[in-house]
Backbone:
Protein backbone atom coordinates (compact mmCIF):
# COMPACT_ATOMS: atom_id res chain seq x y z
CA UNK A 1 0.00 0.00 0.00
CA UNK A 2 1.33 3.44 -0.94
CA UNK A 3 0.71 6.65 0.97
CA UNK A 4 0.03 9.96 -0.82
CA UNK A 5 3.73 10.77 -0.40
CA UNK A 6 4.67 7.54 -2.15
CA UNK A 7 6.07 5.86 0.96
CA UNK A 8 5.03 2.36 1.89
CA UNK A 9 2.53 2.28 4.75
CA UNK A 10 1.80 -0.71 6.94
CA UNK A 11 -1.58 -2.33 7.33
CA UNK A 12 -2.98 -4.21 10.30
CA UNK A 13 -2.60 -3.48 13.97
CA UNK A 14 0.56 -3.41 16.04
CA UNK A 15 -0.07 -6.95 17.32
CA UNK A 16 -0.23 -8.42 13.82
CA UNK A 17 2.88 -6.47 12.75
CA UNK A 18 4.81 -7.85 15.72
CA UNK A 19 3.68 -11.37 14.75
CA UNK A 20 4.75 -10.82 11.12
CA UNK A 21 8.15 -9.58 12.30
CA UNK A 22 8.52 -12.57 14.66
CA UNK A 23 8.82 -10.27 17.68
CA UNK A 24 7.71 -11.61 21.05
CA UNK A 25 7.43 -9.02 23.78
CA UNK A 26 9.12 -9.65 27.12
CA UNK A 27 7.33 -9.59 30.46
CA UNK A 28 6.52 -5.98 31.35
CA UNK A 29 9.13 -4.28 33.52
CA UNK A 30 8.54 -3.34 37.14
CA UNK A 31 9.51 0.01 38.69
CA UNK A 32 12.86 0.31 40.47
CA UNK A 33 11.48 2.96 42.83
CA UNK A 34 8.43 4.93 43.93
CA UNK A 35 6.80 5.56 40.54
CA UNK A 36 4.60 3.86 37.95
CA UNK A 37 5.78 2.57 34.57
CA UNK A 38 3.00 4.24 32.58
CA UNK A 39 0.53 7.12 32.67
CA UNK A 40 -1.89 8.34 30.05
CA UNK A 41 -3.73 11.59 29.57
CA UNK A 42 -6.00 12.40 26.65
CA UNK A 43 -4.54 10.66 23.61
CA UNK A 44 -0.97 10.36 24.94
CA UNK A 45 0.72 7.51 26.80
CA UNK A 46 3.87 8.40 28.73
CA UNK A 47 6.20 5.60 29.80
CA UNK A 48 8.93 5.72 32.41
CA UNK A 49 12.47 5.27 31.14
CA UNK A 50 13.04 1.67 30.09
CA UNK A 51 16.22 -0.27 30.68
CA UNK A 52 17.62 -3.21 28.66
CA UNK A 53 16.21 -5.78 31.08
CA UNK A 54 15.53 -9.41 30.16
CA UNK A 55 13.91 -11.77 32.66
CA UNK A 56 14.07 -9.01 35.29
CA UNK A 57 17.88 -8.75 34.96
CA UNK A 58 20.01 -6.16 33.17
CA UNK A 59 21.01 -7.88 29.93
CA UNK A 60 23.76 -5.44 28.91
CA UNK A 61 25.74 -3.25 31.27
CA UNK A 62 28.64 -0.87 30.95
CA UNK A 63 29.56 2.38 29.25
CA UNK A 64 29.67 3.16 25.55
CA UNK A 65 33.16 4.09 24.43
CA UNK A 66 34.67 2.24 27.38
CA UNK A 67 33.60 -1.42 27.39
CA UNK A 68 30.60 -1.41 25.02
CA UNK A 69 30.52 -1.10 21.23
CA UNK A 70 27.99 0.80 19.14
CA UNK A 71 26.48 -2.56 18.14
CA UNK A 72 26.04 -3.57 21.80
CA UNK A 73 24.49 -0.16 22.49
CA UNK A 74 22.06 -0.64 19.60
CA UNK A 75 21.00 -4.00 21.00
CA UNK A 76 20.53 -2.47 24.47
CA UNK A 77 18.35 0.28 22.94
CA UNK A 78 16.31 -2.33 21.05
CA UNK A 79 15.74 -4.41 24.19
CA UNK A 80 14.71 -1.32 26.17
CA UNK A 81 12.29 -0.42 23.36
CA UNK A 82 10.71 -3.88 23.49
CA UNK A 83 10.24 -3.32 27.22
CA UNK A 84 8.49 -0.05 26.42
CA UNK A 85 6.07 -1.91 24.17
CA UNK A 86 5.49 -4.52 26.89
CA UNK A 87 4.71 -1.75 29.40
CA UNK A 88 2.35 -0.11 26.89
CA UNK A 89 0.55 -3.42 26.35
CA UNK A 90 0.17 -3.93 30.09
CA UNK A 91 -1.21 -0.40 30.53
CA UNK A 92 -3.55 -0.38 27.53
CA UNK A 93 -4.57 -4.04 27.50
CA UNK A 94 -4.33 -3.99 23.71
CA UNK A 95 -1.30 -2.86 21.70
CA UNK A 96 -3.55 -2.08 18.78
CA UNK A 97 -4.57 1.09 20.66
CA UNK A 98 -1.10 2.47 19.89
CA UNK A 99 -1.34 4.82 16.91
CA UNK A 100 2.25 6.02 16.69
CA UNK A 101 5.41 6.85 18.57
CA UNK A 102 5.43 10.62 19.03
CA UNK A 103 8.72 11.21 20.87
CA UNK A 104 11.72 9.06 21.66
CA UNK A 105 14.44 10.11 24.09
CA UNK A 106 17.52 7.91 24.46
CA UNK A 107 20.00 8.43 27.28
CA UNK A 108 23.38 6.77 26.96
CA UNK A 109 26.05 6.15 29.58
CA UNK A 110 29.18 7.23 27.71
CA UNK A 111 32.75 8.33 28.04
CA UNK A 112 33.61 11.98 27.37
CA UNK A 113 35.09 11.04 24.00
CA UNK A 114 32.15 8.98 22.73
CA UNK A 115 30.40 10.70 19.81
CA UNK A 116 28.32 7.98 18.10
CA UNK A 117 25.09 8.70 19.95
CA UNK A 118 22.85 8.72 16.86
CA UNK A 119 23.83 5.24 15.59
CA UNK A 120 23.22 3.77 19.05
CA UNK A 121 19.79 5.42 19.31
CA UNK A 122 18.97 3.95 15.89
CA UNK A 123 18.69 0.60 17.68
CA UNK A 124 15.45 1.97 19.15
CA UNK A 125 14.33 4.08 16.20
CA UNK A 126 14.79 1.28 13.67
CA UNK A 127 12.60 -1.06 15.76
CA UNK A 128 9.81 1.53 16.01
CA UNK A 129 10.01 2.23 12.24
CA UNK A 130 9.67 -1.52 11.59
CA UNK A 131 6.58 -1.62 13.79
CA UNK A 132 4.84 1.67 12.98
CA UNK A 133 6.12 2.15 9.43
CA UNK A 134 8.29 4.87 7.92
CA UNK A 135 5.41 7.31 7.45
CA UNK A 136 4.56 7.45 11.17
CA UNK A 137 7.84 9.17 12.04
CA UNK A 138 8.93 10.29 15.50
CA UNK A 139 11.01 13.08 16.95
CA UNK A 140 14.08 12.07 18.89
CA UNK A 141 16.51 13.39 21.46
CA UNK A 142 19.65 11.44 22.34
CA UNK A 143 22.38 12.40 24.76
CA UNK A 144 25.18 10.98 26.83
CA UNK A 145 25.35 11.03 30.61
CA UNK A 146 27.91 10.04 33.24
CA UNK A 147 25.85 7.21 34.77
CA UNK A 148 22.47 5.50 34.64
CA UNK A 149 20.57 3.39 37.21
CA UNK A 150 21.90 -0.11 38.03
CA UNK A 151 24.80 0.26 35.59
CA UNK A 152 22.55 0.34 32.51
CA UNK A 153 24.13 1.68 29.31
CA UNK A 154 20.83 2.95 27.87
CA UNK A 155 17.46 4.32 28.91
CA UNK A 156 14.67 4.61 26.36
CA UNK A 157 11.94 7.15 27.15
CA UNK A 158 8.81 7.16 24.97
CA UNK A 159 5.60 9.09 24.39
CA UNK A 160 2.96 7.35 22.26
CA UNK A 161 -0.24 8.59 20.66
CA UNK A 162 -3.06 6.25 21.61
CA UNK A 163 -6.60 5.54 20.51
CA UNK A 164 -8.85 7.09 23.14
CA UNK A 165 -11.49 4.80 24.56
CA UNK A 166 -14.98 6.25 24.46
CA UNK A 167 -16.67 6.80 27.81
CA UNK A 168 -19.23 4.10 27.06
CA UNK A 169 -16.51 1.45 26.49
CA UNK A 170 -14.13 2.47 29.26
CA UNK A 171 -14.50 1.64 32.94
Residues:
Amino acid sequence: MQSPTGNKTLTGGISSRLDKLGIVLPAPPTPLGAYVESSDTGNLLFLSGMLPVVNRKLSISGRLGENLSVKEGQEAARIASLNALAAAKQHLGDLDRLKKLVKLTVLLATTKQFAEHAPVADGASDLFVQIFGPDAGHVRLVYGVQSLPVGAPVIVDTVFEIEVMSQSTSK
User: Anything to note?
Assistant: The first strand starts at residue 38 and ends at 41.
